[in-house]
């Protein structure tokens, strides 16, 4: 099981480098989650990868990596530990993050839902709902500009 947890860390680091090199902030701070949301806006549309976009190839591994990045961002801000249960083709989707208060979240599943459903499953709102203050501060500023 530890190799799957190693995959989480490797994937999170890999996607952070890729996001940074593509002009997105990916420094594992809560304030970077709105950039993950912007990435999803620019490269997906309700379950369809934008043609020529960064999700047009390697969709599964990239969504997994984005989920691990979101989870690592939450873990670094709030604490917690990754947990991997099961084997098989869907095991990566079920990697969980157990938070210090005992709650369990599934960031890879959340990113996959964001891909399928669009902005209604916002990654930035997810971070804010979990109590990541930098994410909620950024969202308040964003809404003031739009309102």
Q: Order of helices and strands, N to C? A: HHHEEEHHH
Count of helices? 6
What gyration radius follows from the Cα positions, in whole Å?
Answer: 14 Å
What sort of overall outline do the alpha carbons produce when their principal axes are compared?
globular
| Helix share, percent | 55-70%
Strand order of the largest sheet: 1-2-3
Distance between the termini: 47 Å
Low-confidence stretches: none
Number of beta-strand segments: 3
Helical/strand content category: mainly alpha
Main sheet overview? 3 strands, antiparallel
The averaged pLDDT comes out at: 88
CATH class bucket: Mainly Alpha
Report the CATH topology name: Four Helix Bundle (Hemerythrin (Met), subunit A)
Beta-strand percentage range? 5-15%
What CATH architecture do you see?
Up-down Bundle
Structurally, the number of domains stands at 1
Can you describe what's shown?
With 147 residues, the protein is mainly alpha-helical. It has a single domain (2-146), classed as Four Helix Bundle (Hemerythrin (Met), subunit A). 56% of the residues lie in helices and 5% in strands. It has 6 helices and 3 strands, in the order αααβββααα.
Short description:
The chain has 147 residues and is mainly alpha-helical.
Strand and helix layout:
Elements: H1 2-21, H2 33-43, H3 59-78, E1 81-83, E2 96-98, E3 104-105, H4 107-117, H5 123-129, H6 133-146
Antiparallel strand pairs: 1-2, 2-3
Helix pairs in contact: 1-3, 2-5, 3-4, 5-6
Entry keywords:
6 helices; 3-stranded antiparallel sheet; 3 strands; Four Helix Bundle (Hemerythrin (Met), subunit A); mainly alpha; single chain
């Amino acid at each position: 099981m530890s190799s799957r947890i190693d995959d989480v860390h490797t994937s999170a680091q890999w996607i952070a480098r890729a996001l940074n090199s593509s002009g997105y902030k990916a420094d594992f701070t809560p304030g970077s989650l709105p950039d993950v949301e912007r990435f999803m806006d620019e490269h997906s549309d309700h379950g369809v990868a934008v043609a020529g976009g960064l999700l047009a190839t390697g969709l599964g591994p990239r969504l997994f990596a984005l989920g691990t990045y979101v989870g690592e961002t939450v873990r670094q801000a709030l604490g917690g530990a990754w947990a991997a249960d099961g084997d098989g083709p869907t095991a990566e989707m079920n990697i969980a993050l157990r938070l210090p208060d005992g709650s369990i979240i599934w960031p890879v599943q959340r990113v996959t839902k964001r891909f399928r459903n669009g902005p209604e499953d916002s990654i930035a709102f997810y971070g804010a709902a979990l109590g990541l203050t930098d994410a909620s501060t950024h969202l308040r500023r964003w809404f003031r500009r739009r309102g």
